[in-house]
Request: fold
Amino acid sequence: VYILLHWTPHTSYNFHNTKITQDKTMTDAITFATPYDDSNIFAKILRGEIPSISVFENDDCLAFMDIMPQREGHTLVIPKRPAVTFLDIEPDSLANLIKHTQIVARAVQKAMNADGFSIVQLNGSKGGQTVPHIHFHILPGSILNAGAHGAIPSDPEHLAKVAEKIRNA
Ligand code: AMP
Reply:
């Protein structure tokens, strides 16, 4: 099978072509990245200008409670480096962000005793993104029957207790 694959001109042409296309797409995405507006609310959180109720932080990422949770335990994970959407972040940083999202999701799931959970990521205002700094939402349970998006503020004292559970999970 190995020899056949290597000697079938069609297969090797397609493979080569796909690779070039992928490389070009990545270059384009980085070259034409959406301009970053550093007055967005998550940039302010990262600079410490406004508070957040954090559950995890290291040099690369910050995870904190969504102040308008769609369900108890709704947590956000953001990279510290600026990027607006999924297409604007460098692939290595995206991989690192997903790695941290998995770490935090494990803690959220355990702390909330959730049977299932949803990872959500919205891109651009037409895609429903309201804060233009890339982030992953971690939501216990299903997004399909969650509360309204970014609509009802939760009591910060209550959120702090939920955050403590997640930090200790
Ligand atoms: P998105 O619409 O995907 O950009 O999600 C932005 C999320 O950020 C929404 O779920 C909001 O409830 C949440 N949010 C907005 N402001 C803050 C804030 N200051 N602290 C924590 N979460 C926030």
Notes: Strands lie at 54-57, 61-65, 75-79, 117-120, 136-140. The two ends are 48 Å apart (CA to CA).
